[in-house]
Amino acid sequence: MKYNFDTFIDRKTTDCEKYSNNLSVFGTNDILPLWIADMDFASADFIVDAITERAKHGVYGYACRCESFWKAAQFWIENQSGWKVDAKWMHFSPGVVAGVVFSILANSKEGEGVLLQPPVYHPFANIINHNNRKIVNNPLVKNIDGTYSIDFADFEEKAKLAKVFILCNPQNPTGKVYTKDELRKLGEICLKHNVVVISDEIHMDFVYEPAIHTHFATVDPRFMDITITVTAPSKSFNIAGLCTAYTIIPNAKLRENYLCEMSKIHCDNSNVFGTVALQAAYTPQGQEWMKEMNQYLISNIDLTIEFLEKNLPNIKCRKPEATFLLWLDFTNFGLAQDQLIEFLVKEAKLGLNDGRIYGEGGDGFMRINIGAPKQTIQLALDQLLEAAKKRGLA
Ligand SMILES: Cc1ncc(COP(=O)(O)O)c(C=O)c1O
Fold first, then answer.
1. CATH class of 59-283
2. Rounded Cα gap, residues 33 and 371, in angstroms
3. 59: exposed, middle or buried (C-beta count within 10 Å: 0-12, 13-18, 19+)?
């Protein structure tokens, strides 16, 4: 490996959510935080260098996104997946969730339905509620082997009640990668019932073989016309704090409506460092770094799953097809969710995400973030095992 992901970096003094908000989130600072979805690794050295160079300039006035910014984004998408994106389809968003919000506002009215497939990334439900839209759920179906599938008959019924569908692919928190066939079926139903698809593809760069990421919009030329893809380099290169994301909207009318919503709150200004970081990341060097990052993440996933199978077989975890998030099934512990959280926080001293926040299907589950050096993951697993032994759960 050319890059080193084993280095432990102390983040406690950096005002970051994962390390500085534990008291308010978990009621204690005495935990190992493996919750919010950023990684404990340094970003790539060539990104750090580019930001440092820009920082040395000293003038941080309003930035713009020049041609090179969009060329870098086009390069990345085409080289990762083969999708040739026209630069005029792309637009900036200060975040992926913000892009999803503008897309909801542009394509639905108050009181209208927004379709979700829980368990799913929790801010979606929050933004639907905050914007006075109605959540319409088509829950994913959990299979015995821990994989998730789609109830298409239910999806079609629910699509009749919705204006917009938020697709989360790759899926957080289950790690599911939607197959082309699944996407095709979903798309046909959305076309039939005039549902606009907001495809959140922020985790698109963390997809593990044999799974393949398919951009929803590319499955069928007709899907291009109903899709707003929202994505970013933020997860991939651990630069979420630089607030730089983008949308891909091939349909001119959808694009116009999106831009109109965005202009209402005047948030089109780029982050100076985010602009530089995207251009440094979306390069052949970035691809090489990403490949190694994924190898490291796969080894962390294997480490975790092998440890659980050997020492804590009561905790079930299926190998995710994507993401650096593992969806742990604690139902065999026989604890109510509040007791489970108390056990994890007070006894195992671990800060994980409560499965319930992801909606239906989340009770009994916790999400753990394995985007950290191996020593951190091993420490977490050892703490979990020791606490479980004391309780007679191992
Ligand atoms: C599916 C998904 N979408 C969006 C985000 C957040 O994106 P942003 O910080 O750019 O709003 C996350 C972060 O965990 C995520 O998992």
1. alpha beta
2. 11
3. exposed
Distance between Cα 319 and ligand 1 center (Å) = 21
Q: From the CB of 240, is ligand 1 less than 6 Å away? A: yes
Which atom of ligand 1 lies closest to the CA of 36? 14
Confidence category of residue 209, pLDDT binned at 50, 70, 90: very high
pLDDT, average across residues 256-265: 95
Q: Domain ranges in the chain? A: 17-44+285-387, 59-283
User: Considering the domain 17-44+285-387 in this protein, what is its CATH number?
Assistant: 3.90.1150.10
d(CA 146, CA 68) in angstroms, rounded, equals: 43
101 lines ligand 1 (CB under 6 A): no
Q: What is the mean pLDDT of the chain?
A: 97
Ligand 1 center–CA 327 separation, angstroms: 17
Model pLDDT for residues 275-295, shown as the tens digit of each residue: 999 999 999 999 999 999 999
Ligand 1 near 198 CB (within 6 A): no
